[in-house]
Write a structure and sequence with these properties.
Blueprint lengths: L10 E3 L2 E3 L10 H14 L11 E5 L25 H13 L4 E5 L7 H10 L5 E6 L6 H10 L3 E5 L5 H8 L4 H15 L2 E6 L3 H5 L3 H10 L4 E4 L17 H16 L8 E3 L16 E4 L5 E2 L22
Helix pairs in contact: 3-4, 4-6
Length: 319
Amino acid sequence: MMGKNKLVRAFKTNGKYVWDIYNPAWPSKAFNSFFINHLHELEYISDEHMSLRRLLIAITKRCPLKCEHCSEGATLYNQDVLSYDDIISRIDPFIKKNVGQLVYSGGEPLSRFEDLVKLITRYNNKCDQWIYTSAYGLTIEKAKLLKKAGLNGAAISLDHHIEEEHNQFRGNQKSYYWVLEGIKNLQEVGIFVAINICPTKEYIDSNSVEIFISLAQELDVPIVNILEPRGVGNYQDKDVELEIKHKESLERISKKYNFNPAFFDSPTVIYPAAYRKMMPCGGGKSYLFLDYDGNLYPCPFCKAKMTLPTSDTELCEAE
């Protein structure tokens, strides 16, 4: 995917090595499962050997924010219908098939904190576990509980380097404060932290992305993950998707920070969309999305329902 380029940095955390948020730390059981599953994707042997690398799980519809770009805007704030037992009954078959990574989202996964901790504890040391979060309300006490449960990493959403702009985007005047608090508290207890940003066309045009990366460096956050805005949820039918010039700009920035030794002390800048030219989307094959109602989809943006596995060897198939 990267051609002849080589990353200039990796990160050592809790005795393991990390280079991005999409691959489990090495050495670990999760790393082995993840890449064994990847090899079986590349060279098919049998259905018995096929499994997912990653499962994304929306555990709640609750959220304290009203984000401009929320992909689940139509269903937020509704009552959760799945109990903790319902959720684990859907995750357990993937664990039996040695899924490499679980990623908890929502809504805001911290809004269902007790069940989140129980889930992480249940699957501790069985796979890599992350949360995608706004960090809203992520106190030091909660960070300690997440660490004790076995959380491997957290990707915290931050959408602007200016506090007022981020708060307006997130629909909450305390959002930026909690991003900084969440980063600090997770770092204090030893949980690996990355930042997710979903930049608008205007943000890219204003040459603000590298200012954002500098902020991440000041916060001692090792990875910035760039997501593309998509025309779903609150962005449905809006002209938000990036143009070629924006994508090329983000790709240049990513390569600059990842492969140029002069920027060794800067964060790694992940821009997954840049690699779609070399590899197809892995939704439905490498990873799946389990929503808060128990429905299974190829990814959070593709709403083609899929079926859950009903045995240890059955593959997930599209309806």
